[in-house]
Write a structure and sequence with these properties.
Length: 138
Amino acid sequence: MPRKKAIPKTITAAVLQKGFDEYFDKCKNHSIETTLKSGEKHTVPQPKIPTIKDFWCVHMKLSWAMWGELLASEATAATCEAIRDTLEGAVLDALINGEGNSTGLIFDLKANYGYTDKQLTNDGLQIRKIEISVRRNN
């Protein structure tokens, strides 16, 4: 069994919440710069869909293993769960409202939140007879 890593004392629930608030605002206020035909530069708002791995690994610059440790810690579990729930809601909202790439959003939900495809089963189904007839037209 892998050994648990010690959580740095600098990572508190308050630090996580502050980092998340900054990240979420950054995503909402994201914009891109385009150049018009006239050559003039123009900034266009283009909100970014927030994801858990982007928040954790890129914005917070922490390992994915540390996320698991913080979810298991009494001191930070509630904050981490609230962050995860907010991000899951943002991804679902983007999927429902047609924002972003639906394939990527579905992948994110499956990979990070435990979503699965509906599986059809054959419970109680019995196939008794299959008939195939071939008719040839001449």
